[in-house]
């Protein structure tokens, strides 16, 4: 288990280093002057030169990268040109919106998808399986921004059960804050639940053909117990893989949903920074999101060893 853990940690660290180089090169070594891009074409040469000096653009490339990497390790991401505040303060302010939203959406997705996958696999080839997978296919094909607008019209405009957008902040109380996240979480969760349900069903169908499943059934074990106690656990590895990828997407890829619901999250922060040409914010937040994805994938890899003990001795 120790060797498995060390190997995964080394792979995660190496991936993080490579990702930092890629992000730095993509945003730093691009055609044109980053300072000119941020200030616009009407800025004077003196203003551009001052910003270049503040951003360290006059230093060699390797020095700029090492300074930036050291800043990331110490959580010193520099100062936003647009907001005139440290980038880390912007991240803290937006993270408390995006992270709970991703957690709620992932929980909803899992609670919906696993039972549907079990239901469809237990009725493989029958009407229930066909209906469940047809609904899941519709969910996969449905654009989440269109579904979000539909939810706003039904539950906020027509029924007036929840707010149509905005976020009151956690200082206003847990219930008002959670209430503002309900529709965005549902809009994110249902399309992801459709994907997860199809993966769960496929993994379970494969496992149900194994000899130990037939033995359990031959001994008289009820199908419900076989599905929950034997089949599901042995089908969890592909399911956990998709859940890890989905959480990374929910945390880093919510730009559209956060803009539909006017949520002050990380996705909207990146969108605003791009439109305002605040490259310091874009660079730092993108790298943080990349690091979050790598950490989530590392946790998923470690969960494999908990689900399947054989992996502890193979790696």
UniProtKB/TrEMBL annotation:
PROSITE patterns (UniProt xref): ABC_TM1
Residue span(s) of domain ABC transmembrane type-1: 95-300
CDD domains for the chain: TM_PBP2 (cd06261)
Transmembrane parts of this sequence: 9-27, 99-122, 134-158, 178-197, 231-257, 285-307
Location(s), subcellular: Cell membrane
Cited Pfam families: BPD_transp_1 (PF00528), BPD_transp_1_N (PF19300)
Its membrane topology: Multi-pass membrane protein
The keyword Oxidoreductase belongs to this UniProt entry's keyword annotation: no
Keywords linked to the UniProt accession: Cell membrane, Membrane, Transmembrane, Transmembrane helix, Transport
Family, per entry: Belongs to the binding-protein-dependent transport system permease family.
Protein name: Peptide/nickel transport system permease protein
Lineage of the organism: Bacteria, Pseudomonadati, Pseudomonadota, Alphaproteobacteria, Hyphomicrobiales
């Amino acid at each position: 288990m120790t060797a498995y853990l060390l190997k995964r940690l080394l792979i995660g660290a190496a991936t993080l280093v490579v990702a930092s180089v890629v992000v730095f090169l993509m945003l730093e070594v691009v055609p044109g002057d980053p300072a000119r891009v941020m200030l616009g074409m009407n800025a004077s040469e003196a203003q551009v030169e001052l910003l270049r000096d503040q951003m360290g653009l006059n230093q060699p490339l390797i020095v700029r990268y090492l300074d930036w990497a050291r800043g990331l390790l110490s959580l010193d991401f520099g100062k936003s040109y647009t907001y005139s505040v440290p980038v880390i303060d912007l991240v803290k302010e937006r993270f408390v919106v995006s992270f709970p939203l991703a957690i709620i959406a992932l929980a909803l997705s899992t609670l919906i998808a696993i039972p549907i996958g079990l239901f469809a696999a237990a009725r493989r080839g029958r009407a229930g399986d066909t209906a469940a997978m047809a609904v899941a296919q519709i969910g996969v094909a449905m654009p989440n921004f269109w579904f979000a607008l539909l939810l706003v019209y039904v539950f906020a405009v027509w029924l007036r059960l929840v707010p149509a957008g905005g976020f009151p902040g956690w200082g206003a109380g847990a219930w008002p804050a959670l209430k503002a996240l309900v529709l965005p979480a549902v809009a994110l969760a249902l399309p992801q639940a459709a994907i997860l349900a199809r993966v769960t069903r496929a993994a379970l169908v494969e496992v149900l053909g194994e000899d130990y499943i037939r033995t359990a059934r031959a001994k008289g074990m009820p199908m419900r117990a076989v599905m929950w106690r034997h089949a599901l656990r042995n089908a969890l590895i592909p399911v956990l893989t998709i859940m890890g990828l989905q959480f990374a997407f929910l945390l880093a890829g919510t730009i559209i949903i956060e803009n539909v619901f006017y949520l002050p999250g990380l996705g909207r922060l990146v969108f605003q920074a791009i439109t305002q040409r605040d490259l310091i914010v874009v660079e730092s937040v993108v790298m943080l999101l990349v690091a979050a994805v790598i950490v989530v994938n590392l946790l998923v890899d470690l969960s494999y060893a908990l689900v399947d003990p054989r992996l502890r001795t193979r790696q």
